[in-house]
Write a structure and sequence with these properties.
It is built from 12 helices and 8 strands. It is of the alpha/beta class and about 280 residues long. An 8-stranded mixed sheet has the order 1-2-4-3-5-6-7-8, with helices on both faces. Helix 10 runs antiparallel to helix 11.
Length: about 280
């Protein structure tokens, strides 16, 4: 595997994890690509939503990338969105070199990273984004979205940081762009969404709002909402919360068994998203 890091603009970096596997005729296999956007409330990037996710998609045959986008005062709309479309354009421009099908580039985002993925999906052609990014809409358009316990709206059910951080200082009409569900159209990329019904940080209503907008626009989508579970489970592997889980197993075995079942139920989202994107990209 080849691992490299490239600057995307002045603040962001793109780390690639590329397989060098060849096709049957000895040439690089044309793979799908996944750009991973970790969550962290637009103030930090959660490590368990970065490299482990990239490697999980790599195991499914994707060429994978992690975009470490701008944060805090540097991430105000459209800065982070411009970094995502610039990263997609960079990957698309190097598709031949990286063994990627340039029309099969998806973005996977978690929590605030899910908001950024959704925002990119609906605003990739917005003049503010394109002017900042310096690319065209066709160069920077994602072909698919994977949104995991995503922040979607800046309205009633929104995570406060969407307005307070990503929308800091913006005029009201620009802040309205942060409610991504309002801007879904038929040109929004096909989307897989997953969350938990008891998420108290980003209510599952966020996922439902985007799914409803996709349905109304006629965009292919699939949604998985696990009954129960906490925000930020990532791949939902025991090792993510191993210390807590090990202690819980000793002190509260009933809760441990319940959490273990929830994590096992939520862990299917990678496989489901791969199957969904295969259906979208390959007509399976």
């Amino acid at each position: 595997m080849r691992v490299f890091t490239e600057p995307i603009g002045e603040r962001a970096t793109l780390t690639g994890y590329l397989s060098d596997e060849l096709s049957g005729n000895g040439s690089p296999r044309k793979r799908k690509a996944m750009v991973v956007l970790p969550g962290g409330g637009y103030v930090m990037l959660a490590p368990h939503e970065a490299e482990p996710v990239a490697l999980a998609y790599s195991a499914h045959g994707y060429q994978t990338f992690i975009l470490r986008y701008s944060l805090a005062d540097d991430c105000v709309f459209p800065q982070a969105e411009s970094e995502v479309v610039r990263a997609i354009a960079f990957i698309r421009a190097h598709a031949e070199e990286y063994g990627i099908d340039p029309e099969k580039i998806a973005v996977c985002g978690f929590s605030a990273g899910g908001h950024l993925a959704a925002s990119t999906g609906v605003h990739y052609a917005h003049p503010m984004v394109l002017e900042r990014a310096g690319v065209t809409a066709s160069e920077g358009r994602p072909n698919g979205l994977v949104l995991i316990y995503p922040c979607i709206t800046a309205d009633e059910y929104g995570y406060p940081g969407i307005r307070a951080i990503h929308g800091k200082g913006l005029a009201p009409e620009v802040q309205d762009l942060l409610s991504t569900e309002k801007y879904v159209t038929k040109d929004t990329p096909p989307t897989y969404l997953a969350t938990t019904s008891t998420d108290t940080v980003v209510p599952s209503v966020n996922t439902l709002l985007f799914a409803m907008a996709l349905a109304q626009a006629g965009v292919p989508y699939e949604t998985h909402i696990t009954r129960g579970g906490e925000h930020g489970m990532g791949l939902a592997r025991d090792e993510f919360m191993w210390g807590d889980m090990a202690k819980m197993r000793e002190t509260d075995p009933e809760k441990y068994n319940r959490m273990h079942d929830i994590m096992r139920a939520f862990s299917v989202w990678v496989d489901e998203s791969v199957h969904f994107l295969s259906g979208v990209f390959d007509g399976q």
